[in-house]
From TrEMBL:
PANTHER family: ATPASES OF THE PP SUPERFAMILY-RELATED, TRNA-5-METHYLURIDINE(54) 2-SULFURTRANSFERASE. The keyword Hydrolase does not apply. It comes from the Bacteria. This is TIGR00269 family protein. InterPro entries: Ncs6/Tuc1/Ctu1, Rhodanese-like_dom, Rossmann-like_a/b/a_fold, TilS/TtcA_N, tRNA_thiolation_TtcA_Ctu1, TtuA-like_LIM_N. The keyword Glycosyltransferase does not apply. NCBIfam families: TIGR00269 family protein. Residues 33-95 form the Rhodanese domain. Keywords: Transferase.
Length: 303
């Protein structure tokens, strides 16, 4: 198949667009998608200070790379969550990329800095490791963004992630989550920093091509706790649908954003936000979950 743009030999075929690209034109397509998403949803502009959430995987590395190459004012932020070798390897990848490319990077280590152990916490709280991990990440990314005057936090969520999350939320009609599912979450409290997902129309595979073509080092391993996660099952189901009917994932997301999401807006607007009485960060309870984690860890280590 010929490249749809320059008519040279196409090497990357995107079934949902029924289009092939040569490497150069694929990069043009990819960059255009990101630029369009940023502009269409007024995510940020060149004056904004953007904190990019980095895990070391292909999606976040692709996001960091493209935003930096397009001249945005970006700083990466990585959290070492104490997940054995997975955390050690990913931290190495992220630090070496920042160093090689002269990029700003903030690193937080939850064990060293806060004495937190997600395994111990998940046992004590009878919550899954992923849920404890998610609460810590959400808290720290927002706190660092707020404390260091970032105007926006950008994550590498891709089309596959978004479609799988939407499917999960629809299956159990999680109204609160459906209200918040969007490529842009504007701040609803002075201490909550805006969140954006510039890659939400690009698939995992497209992000993979982007990092491979640009020779960007990334961590190939998934987090060991992702094994057996519901989101993986949803991704497999959606992949089957996509195979039969290319474009399903994109239609699912875009039609939800255009027609579905507005029906849940009241749920979002009615959430009662307050400031944690210990740290002052935004929460829905008197003490936020991060401060609860800290006090549980402290009391356990004393006993
Ligand atoms: Fe949080 Fe896997 S990255 S549990």
């Amino acid at each position: 198949m010929k490249c749809v743009r320059c008519k040279k030999k196409g090497v990357i075929y995107l079934k949902r667009h029924n289009a092939a690209f040569c490497q150069e034109c694929f990069l043009y397509y990819y960059k255009n998608q990101v630029k369009k998403n940023i502009k269409r949803h007024r995510m940020f502009d060149k004056k904004d200070k953007v904190l990019v959430v980095i895990s070391g995987g292909k999606d976040s590395m692709a996001l960091w790379h493209i935003l930096a190459s397009e001249g945005y004012n970006v700083t990466g932020m990585y959290i070492n969550l104490g997940i054995g070798q997975y955390s050690d390897k990913s931290q190495q990848v992220v630090e070496s990329f920042a160093q090689k490319n002269g990029l700003e990077l903030i690193v937080k280590d939850i064990k060293k800095e806060y004495g937190l152990d997600i395994y111990r916490l998940s046992k004590l709280l009878k919550r899954s490791t992923c849920s404890v991990c998610g609460s810590i990440k959400r808290y720290l990314f927002n706190k660092v963004a707020y404390d260091c005057w970032f105007s926006v936090v950008a994550t590498g969520h891709n089309l596959d992630d978004e479609a799988a999350t939407l499917l999960g939320n629809v299956l159990s009609w999680e109204e609160g989550y459906l209200a918040r599912q969007s490529p842009v979450l504007d701040s609803t409290h002075p201490k909550l920093v805006k969140k954006v997902k510039p890659l939400y129309t690009l698939t995992e595979r497209e992000n993979l091509y982007y990092v491979l073509i640009n020779k960007i080092e990334f961590l190939h391993d998934e987090c060991p706790h992702a094994v057996g996660a519901r989101s993986i099952l949803y991704k497999e189901v959606l992949n089957k649908l996509e195979e039969e009917s290319p474009g399903t994932k994109q239609r699912f997301i875009t039609s939800f954003l255009e027609k579905g999401r507005r029906h849940f807006q009241d749920v979002y607007a009615n959430v009662d936000l307050r400031e944690c009485k210990l740290c002052g960060q935004v929460t829905t309870t008197e003490v936020c979950s991060f401060c609860r984690f800290i006090s549980i860890s402290n009391s356990q280590s004393k006993s």
